[in-house]
Design brief:
mainly alpha, 62% helix
Length: 104
């Protein structure tokens, strides 16, 4: 059985208010993801991607949102949307690179 006090997401150092809030939301999404609550995690990642689009957390949220869709459906085709979105919005992010294998 898993302990409730297991670290799921870490941020260090100062962040501006919006970037900090985005990272807090990412942590909550990660907890849902680890508990296999795919729909809840997907919604939370989508919220970060939409509401905090100008923060560094947004491309990561898009990536994990796609992973949640895949986990919920076992349909690998849903992953192919992420590289397109990341390439259009955040082409220089490491998350765009991580999603490249999913591109068709």
């Amino acid at each position: 059985m898993e302990s409730a006090d297991v670290e799921r997401y870490r941020i260090e150092g100062y962040l501006p208010k919006d970037a900090f809030r985005a990272r807090l939301e990412m942590g909550i999404a990660r907890v849902a993801f680890m508990h296999k609550k795919w729909a809840d995690a997907e919604k939370r990642y989508a919220r970060v991607a939409d509401e905090y689009a100008d923060t560094p957390a947004a491309p990561e949220a898009i990536y994990w949102r796609a992973v949640c869709r895949y986990k919920a459906t076992n349909d690998h085709h849903v992953l192919s949307e992420a590289p397109n979105e990341l390439g259009a919005k955040y082409p220089d992010s490491e998350w765009a690179l991580k999603a490249l294998p999913w591109a068709h």
